[in-house]
Write a structure and sequence with these properties.
Layout: E1 8-16, E2 20-28, H1 38-51, E3 57-64, E4 69-71, H2 76-80, H3 85-104, E5 109-113, E6 116-118, H4 120-127, E7 130-134, E8 138-140, H5 157-161, H6 163-172, H7 178-184, E9 189-191, H8 196-208, H9 212-225, H10 230-243, H11 249-268
Parallel strand pairs: 2-3, 3-5, 4-6, 5-7, 6-8, 7-9
Antiparallel strand pairs: 1-2
């Protein structure tokens, strides 16, 4: 029986004054736990890359359709049909491109997680900048139980959870819950499902009180830190600090801060 709700990647732009935009992206393959097939991955990359040109964009929120899964993994039926290494390389490169598009987006990306977040889904969550999960969510990297290694952005996991936990996740392939995810550093917050949106909104409100250009510079710098030795990372930070003055934002925001401080002092005098 055909699915009355065709799968796809849906994007909604939320307008936030003054002139700020928040993008909400939903991976909708609900009947298959939002698993990523080639068509969905191609659409995902196209839409995330297009968002980079959205004027006033301050953040992207990624979630999965329904309550059962963020992303349940890559499409097993499609992987099972792979017959050679070149086809396998093409498929896993599409998974990588999804994660890479998220990491290259110049604004913060928030993973809004509930239900199953497995394999490629956990890699996608790891590629995001911030992660909030609903109580009861399940995480795992089960690829070794299917005869394949966990690859591409699974390489981000040691930086999030440490090498020991990453080895446990990748070599045993066992699922783990939100208590472990929070304690290990896989997610930043765990909340009741009813509070997911409120938590995301609080993060967005905080972002909207920061300098838009400063946050873009900060995300870019964090990405560079991942690949640089300490000495070069420090030098990159000096360059980023200097680059902040390419826009009027530091002068304006520090001027506003000084004016507000002066007003507070005058009111208390």
């Amino acid at each position: 029986m055909p699915d009355p709700r065709p799968q796809g990647v849906k994007v909604r732009i939320e307008e936030r004054p003054p002139g700020a935009r928040i993008a909400h992206l939903t991976i909708d393959n609900e009947r298959r736990l939002n698993s990523l097939n080639s068509a969905l991955m191609t659409e995902f990359v196209d839409k995330v890359e297009a968002l980079a040109a959205t004027e006033g964009l301050r953040a992207l929120v990624i979630t999965g359709a329904g309550e059962k899964a963020f992303v349940g993994g890559a499409a097993i039926d499609e992987m099972a049909a792979v017959t050679d290494g070149e086809a396998a390389r093409a498929f896993i490169t599409r998974v990588h491109r999804c994660c890479h598009a998220v990491r290259e987006l110049p604004v913060p990306v928030i993973a809004r997680i509930q239900g199953f977040t497995l394999g490629a889904g956990l890699e996608l969550a790891a590629a995001c900048d911030l992660r909030v999960a609903a109580e009861g969510a399940q995480f795992g990297m089960p690829e070794v139980k299917l005869g394949i290694p966990s690859v591409v952005e699974a390489a981000l996991l040691p930086g999030l959870v440490g090498w020991g936990r990453a080895r446990e996740m990748l070599l045993l392939g066992e699922n783990f819950g939100t208590d472990e995810a929070l304690a290990w550093g896989m997610v930043e917050r765990v909340v009741p499902a009813a509070q997911l949106d409120a938590t995301v909104d609080r993060w967005i409100d905080s972002l909207l009180h920061t300098g838009a250009e400063a946050v873009r510079l900060q995300k870019q710098l964090i990405r560079r830190w991942e690949d640089l030795p300490m000495r070069e990372a420090v030098r990159a930070g000096i360059d980023a600090f200097a680059a902040a003055w390419d826009s009027p934002e530091p002068t304006r925001m520090m001027g506003e801060f000084q004016a507000a401080r002066k007003a507070r002092r005058a009111a208390g005098a």
